[in-house]
Amino acid sequence: MLNYIIRRLFYAIPILVGVNLITFALFFVVNTPDDMARMHLGTKHVTEEAIWKWKQEHGYNKPLLYNNVAYGIEKFTDTIFFEKSVSMFAFDFGRADDGRDIAHEIQSRMWPSLAIALPVFLLGLLAYITFALIMVFFRATYIDFWGIVLCVMLMSISSLFYIIAGQFLIGKLWHLVPISGYASGLDATRFLLLPIIVGIISSAGANTRWYRTLFLEEINKEYVRTARAKGLSENIVLFRHVLKNAMIPILTGAVVVIPLLFLGGLITESFFGIPGLGSYTIDAIQSQDFAVVRAMVFLGSLLYITGLVLTDISYTFADPRVRLE
C-alpha cells in the first residue's frame, strides 16, 4: 500500500512541474512583460521609459531564465523564472498589483469558498446518488420516466437562471435570506444558504442522470443476477452490491470537484458577493493582475493533481484488486 502511494506521488511531481513550465511560457514568453506593461498603461502612446518603470515596480525588469550580469548561483536565482515561477513551489506567490500579499489573501478567502463548496459537494452527492438509486429501483415506470424528464429540464437551464431566480424569489420577494453579501461567524449562514441551494439544484440534472447510467450498467451484470438468484431483496442488491461496485466511476467524477472546494465557484461567488477565491480570480482577470492569475492557475493545478492522487488511493479501498495490481 505504501509503495503504491509513493509511486503515485512520484507520478504527480513531473506533471506539476510541467504545468508550471507551461504556465510560465504562456505568461512570460507568449505574453512578454512588455505586453503586460502595455495592457496596464494603455496601448496608445506608451513610452519605453513608462514600460521600464512599470516593469521595475512589479519585478519584471530581470532576465527570464539567465542573468548574465549576476554572479554565482544568482545567475539563475536573480531571474523572473526563479522569482515568479519556481518560488510558487514554496507557496511564495509574491504580491498583487495593489501591494497585498497573495498568499495571505488565499488563506483568508479559501474559507468562504469552502463554506459554499463543501456543503454543495457533500449534500449534492448524497442527493444525486439517492435520486438515481430511486429511479433505478423504479426503472421502466412513471417515476423513472418523469425523473428523467425533470433531469433533462434541469440540465437545459443555465446556472445563471437559478442564481437570478433564487435571488429574486427567495431573497427579494420572500425576504428569507439576503440577496448577496457575506458576514463572519454564524451570521454567514444566512448568506450561504441561497448559494448552496442554487449550487445543488443547478447540478442536479446532469449528475443524477450520470449516476443513474452508472447504476443501470451495473444492474445488468452477472453478479447482480447471482445475488437475485440467492434470494436477496432489490434494496440489498442496489444499496449493498450495485452502489459498492459503482464507486470507482463515482470517485473518478468526484476528483473534478476537489479544486472547486478551495477555489470556489467563479460565477456563484461573483453574483452573491462572497469574498472567496472564485471572486478573487474574477477580479484579478478584470483588473489584469497577472500575479494573482498565475497564483490561482498554479493552485488549481496543484489541487487537481492532489485530487488525482487521492482518487487513486481511494481506489484501493473501493476495489482491493487495484492494490494487488
Automatic annotation (TrEMBL):
Coiled-coil segments: none
SUPFAM superfamilies: MetI-like (SSF161098)
Membrane topology of the entry: Multi-pass membrane protein
Entry keyword Cytoplasm: no
Keyword Transcription regulation belongs to the record: no
Principal place of residence: membrane
ABC transmembrane type-1 domain: residues covered: 110-314
Keywords of this entry: Cell membrane, Membrane, Transmembrane, Transmembrane helix, Transport
Transmembrane segments: 9-30, 114-138, 145-170, 190-211, 248-272, 292-318
Cellular compartments annotated: Cell membrane
PANTHER family: INNER MEMBRANE ABC TRANSPORTER, OLIGOPEPTIDE TRANSPORT SYSTEM PERMEASE PROTEIN APPB
Protein family (similarity comment): Belongs to the binding-protein-dependent transport system permease family.
Protein name: Peptide/nickel transport system permease protein
